[in-house]
Design a protein that fits this description.
One of its GO terms (molecular function) is dipeptide transmembrane transporter activity. 77% of the residues lie in helices and 0% in strands. The chain is an all-alpha fold. The chain has a domain at 89-267 and 289-305: MetI-like (MetI-like fold), CATH 1.10.3720.10.
């Protein structure tokens, strides 16, 4: 196990180097000169030269690449070009509100999706099954903007059940008051595709020979579905969940923007609008690292769920 983990960590280095080079090329050659963006339309050659010197973009490319590699190694990406705030501080302070919304949303989406998938698969081919699939198709065809506007206007503005916007300082107040409606909207948007996907995973396993053997031995249908089928369907479910976890680091753009949540997704939008390259580069690198780490954790979870899986 330890040898496998060390080998996978070693294999991450070329991938990470490729990401670093891609990000560096995109932001330095394709993204244009940030000095012109920051100087504004009424700038002159002297002010642009001063900005370039302050940002370090007047250095040769190999020097800039070395600085970028040092920033990644130390997790210190300097200061925001737009606000002057430390990039590390921006990420750490904005990540909390995003996780307050997205972690409960991911847990509820996964648990509800698994439970409903097993129930629908249990009555597969019935009127209930067809009705649920039609409802999922209709739900998937509706834009998230429609959900946000309808829920925000109906439940928050008209009924007053939730705040329309805002965020506080207390964790429990934020979790139970301000993030409840965004979580409900996230569930309304995500539960339909999740249910359809998990249902297909369960039905693929329900048609296997070992399931027919279990039924022939006299096991109840509920035990067959919840124990035998779910255990084997857990592997693709884990893959789906773990593949989506890096998205927790970039937040929920629209939810945070509409509800005034000071999360990382809202900060990404502001960074793009301001051409705040240090913030964008830092988040890009962090998401790349998180993706590789979660891929490793996925393989380890495979073996935990099914010891027959051999790590290579």
């Amino acid at each position: 196990m330890l040898a496998y983990i060390l080998r996978r960590l070693w294999q991450m280095l070329p991938t990470m180097l490729g990401v670093v080079l891609l990000v560096f090329v995109l932001f330095n050659w394709v993204g244009g000169d940030p000095a012109y963006i920051l100087a504004g339309k009424m700038s002159n050659a002297e002010s642009i030269a001063n900005i370039r010197r302050q940002l370090g973009v007047d250095q040769p490319y190999y020097v800039q690449l070395g600085i970028f590699l040092k920033q990644i190694a130390t997790f210190d990406f300097g200061q925001s070009w737009a606000t002057g705030e430390s990039v590390s501080n921006i990420i750490t302070t904005r990540l909390g509100p995003s996780l307050t919304v997205l972690v409960p949303l991911t847990l509820l989406e996964t648990l509800i999706g698994i439970a409903l998938a097993l129930i629908v698969a249990f009555v597969r081919g019935s009127l209930l099954d067809r009705a649920v699939m039609i409802a999922c198709t209709v739900g998937m065809s509706i834009s998230i903007l429609v959900y946000i506007i309808v829920f925000q206007y109906g439940f928050a503005y008209q009924m007053g059940l939730f705040p329309v916007q805002g965020w506080g300082e207390n964790f429990w107040d934020n979790l139970l008051r301000y993030s409840t409606l965004p979580i409900l909207i996230g569930l309304a948007v995500s539960i339909a595709p999740t249910l359809r996907l998990y249902r297909s995973f369960v039905l693929d396993e329900a048609n296997q020979d070992y399931v027919r053997t279990a039924r022939a031995k006299g096991l109840g249908e509920a035990r067959v579905m919840w124990v035998h089928v779910l255990r084997n369907a857990a592997i693709p479910i884990i893959t789906h969940v773990m593949a989506n976890l890096p998205a927790l680091l970039i937040g929920a753009f629209l939810l945070e923007r509409f509800f005034g949540i000071p999360g990382i997704g809202r900060e990404v939008i502001l960074a793009v609008e301001r051409s705040d390259f240090p913030v964008i580069k830092a988040i890009t690198v962090y998401v790349a690292i998180a993706t590789m780490v979660f891929n490793l954790l996925t393989d380890l979870l495979y073996q935990a769920v099914d010891p027959r899986v051999q790590l290579k």
